[in-house]
Design a protein that fits this description.
Layout: H1 3-38, H2 44-53, H3 55-64, H4 70-90, E1 96-101, E2 112-114, E3 117-119, H5 127-138, E4 141-145, H6 148-157, E5 162-167, H7 169-178, E6 184-188, H8 201-208, E7 211-213, E8 229-231
Parallel strand pairs: 1-4, 1-5, 5-6
Antiparallel strand pairs: 2-3, 7-8
Helix pairs in contact: 1-2, 1-4, 2-4, 4-7, 5-8
The chain binds iron/sulfur cluster (SF4).
Iron/sulfur cluster (SF4) binds at residues 105-106, 109-111, 120-126, 128-129.
Length: 233
């Protein structure tokens, strides 16, 4: 075989791999959008494989075809939430951790920062106090953290079987990827940023198992209020 033949075979191989990758990314994008729109699971393992292994490439591909790259994080979070939901619910609350981002704090927050994260003073000026108190009453270990380096410490220093987190879609997806050995659940922020962020507290309480929404298929209205929650039995 001449060197020219070898180059030709290599060229063909690269072309076939490129074509296969393109087919995989297109399929994942179509399935992911369907999954988000229709709220059902279609080939979840294929979707998670594509998001986890080709994360950056998948984002670039989405943008190239005119879809906001954020959809990749959205697909990762929504699919993992559905895949892990049963196992998360089966786990005792005492074996679960709830992680909240410090950016949800009120701008007048007087809480202090310690090695385990923010120590909330329960001043009731923001949703953190409500979620923390409810979580601790239920048996959750609750942490309010200013960054992912704190999450690493929490994971290393605690014994737990499941974890629920609140963050922006991108951080949530990346953390859920790193914690994929656990039945991890996530609630995305409704408004992200560094301060004054917003979360649907009913969605967090529902994931915690504290309430059942009247109609889980109903789209949440995006407010932080707790209107119409029905207590879980
Ligand atoms: S409830 Fe806690 S976190 Fe929220 S503003 Fe008050 S002290 Fe800060």
């Amino acid at each position: 075989m001449s060197i020219f033949d070898l180059y030709q075979i290599l060229g063909q191989l690269v072309f076939i791999v490129g074509l296969a990758l393109l087919a995989l990314l297109s399929t994942a994008l179509i399935l992911g959008r369907m999954q988000i729109k229709e709220d059902r699971l279609i080939f979840p393992k294929l979707l998670l494989f594509t998001v986890d292994v080709f994360y950056g490439l998948f984002k670039k591909f989405s943008e190239q075809v005119g879809v906001d790259g954020k959809i990749v994080d959205q697909i990762g979070v929504e699919v993992r939430n559905k895949v892990n939901q049963k196992d998360f619910r089966k786990t005792k609350h005492e074996d679960k951790i709830l992680v909240l981002p410090h950016c949800l704090r009120n701008t007048e927050c007087q809480a202090t920062l310690e090695t385990s994260g923010i120590i909330c003073k329960n001043c009731n000026k923001c949703v953190i106090g409500v979620l923390k108190n409810k979580g601790e009453d239920m048996g959750y270990k609750v942490y309010i953290i200013p960054g992912s380096q704190f999450l690493k410490k929490i994971v290393e220093q605690n014994k737990f079987k499941a974890i629920l987190g609140v963050a922006c879609y991108q951080d949530l997806n990346l953390c859920m990827m790193n914690l994929s050995n656990y039945p991890v659940q996530g609630v995305p922020l409704l408004r992200d940023g560094c301060v004054n962020t917003k979360v649907d507290s009913r969605a967090v309480l529902e994931k915690m198992g504290a309430i059942q929404l009247e109609d889980s298929g109903t789209k949440l209205d995006g407010s932080c209020s707790e209107s119409n929650p029905k207590k879980a039995h």
